Amino acid sequence: MNDAEQNKPLSVGVTPDGSEAKHTELSNPGIHRLVNEIPLMSRRIANYIVGKPITILAFGEESVPESLRDKITRAGFRLKAVDSISHLLTHEGNNTCALIVNLDVINDKQRARMLQLAEQSINLPVIAISTHSGLNERIDAIRMGATAFVTTPVNDDQVLAEIISLTERYEADPYQVLVIDDQVSVSSYISGVLEQAGFLVTVINDPVNELMPYLQNHIPDLVLLDLYMPGINGQELAGVIRQQESLLSVPIVFLSTEHSQHVQVQAMATGADVFLCKPVQPIDLLYAVEARIRRGRAVRNLVTRDPLTSLWNRREALRRLEDEVLRCQRYGNKLCVGLIDLDRFKRINDTFGHATGDRVIRHFALTMKARLRDGDIVGRLGGEEYLVVLPETTLAVADKVLRRVSDHLENNQPDERFVYTFSGGLVRCLPGMRVDTVLELADSALYQAKEKGRNCVVAVDTR
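RE: above sequence
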């Protein structure tokens, strides 16, 4: 083989007789779309404005069933129907986070225009609805920018969960990245790129002394980890991170100048998800991080979230309670814990049906989330029973919080046929208390609230 043949571009095909093929790899339609079309992970709120309602667009009034419309608005989102592509483009900013498209009701011209917009400019994640669930329909949806595909009859909770997953990073739960790199210049560059894109970043330059204290108090969405550092390597640190039960599903991304594929594969064996070679381009870093955080959160939510309410499930709520109790023991922090039970809930189920009962459970969950602080913990223990954990809160303040929830419910009910209430038991956790002791005291206070006639909160000071 001569020098010219050795230097022939790898993207050019060669025929058996040695002549160049007529087409390069980029002429392949699939590769052309991969390289040239707008990447799916860039689909996000273009210019988020704090305090302004988040808007969900629906392509045509008929795209959204009435029950789903009600759920979306009750969850605090603004729903706006658009009737044409031009109307859609005028609302693409405006704190708009998603576009709901019913593929069954749009015509061929609108479908073609949607595909064209996805190639050119539109940045909105699409939630596609269809009666058909074959590969061709799903591929069309993907090419339009779909992050979710919902078959009819529409599962309202599935759509709402997708909307929440698209917006939580802006409203209540920003994407949090932990960067571990001993070189300050490198970590500053990486954190700057991520922070400019809206991520919350924590940098650790001395992992030997800083990592474990951080992990005791935080669960990041992703860890960016240098492979080679003085006194310790990234593979060892990845092993330490994977020892923490709460961090098993957290993606780990290695960053290194190491180009040996053998070394990369060995490093990945510890539990890392991907290996990026330095220097990494900002756009590659953002796509790698955001894609893995979204998938990681989806997996974590399946394990930790209650499917009916999207609150923490019993296992995760109790795990988080244990963390807060340990923190109270270690540092003497103020901590209040409450058990809440909906009053006479069985009567609602028996009289109006389980679908109505489920609506009440979801309504109360949304009410609690809206009334509590971001750092507070609320989980569904099962049935109509909830756990509330209020860190850095005195008993008097915790009592006022739950009473405000009760006052709000008086004039904000999900069904005009009845009024539901709740009873609560609150307890102050003291250093030295065990989790089971705290729960027993809260349960006893809840029992007292039921004995007093329900629709009240009993707070017990354990001093």
